[in-house]
Design a protein that fits this description.
This protein is α+β, with helices and mostly antiparallel strands. The strands form 5 sheets. A 3-stranded antiparallel beta sheet has the order 1-13-14. It has a 3-stranded antiparallel beta sheet with strand order 2-11-12, with no helix packed on it. The chain has a 3-stranded antiparallel beta sheet with strand order 3-9-10. Helix 4 packs across helix 5. The protein folds into 3 domains: about 80 residues, Cysteine Rich Protein (Ribbon); about 80 residues, Cysteine Rich Protein (Ribbon); about 50 residues, Homeodomain-like (Arc Repressor Mutant, subunit A), CATH 1.10.10. Helix content is about 30%, strand content about 25%. One of its GO terms (molecular function) is DNA-binding transcription factor activity, RNA polymerase II-specific. It is found in: Nucleus. Keywords: DNA-binding, Homeobox, LIM domain, Metal-binding, Nucleus, Repeat, Zinc. This is LIM domain only protein 1.
């Protein structure tokens, strides 16, 4: 059985490289040309990214088309205000689906498969949302947990319980429900022949729509049940 262990919750989304903050112009610096209007920047504040410059009123958000006057977020080719950047491109918590901001503490969940750990992209949880799907208890730092797309996020106790129940279910096997017509066909045949041949099993499988294995097991169980009943009857008569 394999688990992941939680580490210290961390600020996950480091967007420093995506943020352009307004800078104060230096009097000693020569005027720069705005990349939008191609005019000298003489304002007290301006925007700069690498070696590119903008008036604070010229650089606009791609979504709302409003000037970015405070914090500006950039992608490879586009610029966004803080609100639209998070709405359109921001990461969301896997549980509550709300946006994860740069100052939120988060944990990244991993899928356990074949005794190895493979990261599922950015499967993120808020610190308070990192709870077991079954018992809803928070999985704290240093605690073992299991995460998979199929089962979701489980604490060590509930994952062990599910795994145990799954093994027991597999041992018992899956029961096949018979229709009235299928059962009637098998019972009528059993009255005349309690041990059908392989060819007869195949014919019964075709006529009932069941697999040959299911038909064979039904006859085995039927014979065993009658044998037990006969044994009980004999014991009662002694």
């Amino acid at each position: 059985m394999t688990f992941c262990k939680t580490k210290n919750f961390q600020h996950n989304l480091n967007l420093d490289n995506n943020i352009i903050n307004p800078l104060s112009a230096s009097i000693s610096e020569p005027f720069q040309l705005c990349m939008i209007c191609n005019r000298d920047i003489t304002d007290e504040y301006f925007l700069r990214s690498d070696d590119k410059f903008w008036h604070t009123g010229c650089l606009k958000c791609k979504e709302c088309d409003q000037p970015v006057t405070n914090k500006c977020f950039k992608t490879d080719h586009d610029f966004y205000c803080e609100k639209d950047y998070y709405e359109k491109l921001g990461k969301r918590c896997h549980k509550c689906k709300s946006i994860i901001h740069t100052d939120d503490y988060v944990v990244i969940a991993f899928e356990i498969e074949l005794n190895s750990r493979s990261q599922l992209g950015d499967v993120l949880y808020h610190q308070n949302c990192f709870t077991c799907k079954v018992c809803n208890e928070m999985i704290g730092t240093g605690k073992n947990y299991h995460f998979s797309v199929k089962l979701g996020l489980l604490c060590e106790k509930d994952f062990s319980s599910k795994k145990k129940n799954s093994k027991e279910s597999t041992k018992r096997g899956r029961r096949t429900s018979l229709t009235d017509n299928q059962l009637s066909t098998l019972v009528n045949f059993y009255t005349n022949a309690q041990k059908p041949t392989r060819d007869q099993l195949g014919q019964l499988a075709i006529s009932t729509g069941l697999s040959s294995r299911v038909v064979q097991v039904w006859f085995q169980n039927k014979r065993s049940k009658e044998k037990r009943n006969q044994s009980i009857t004999s014991s009662a008569n002694i």
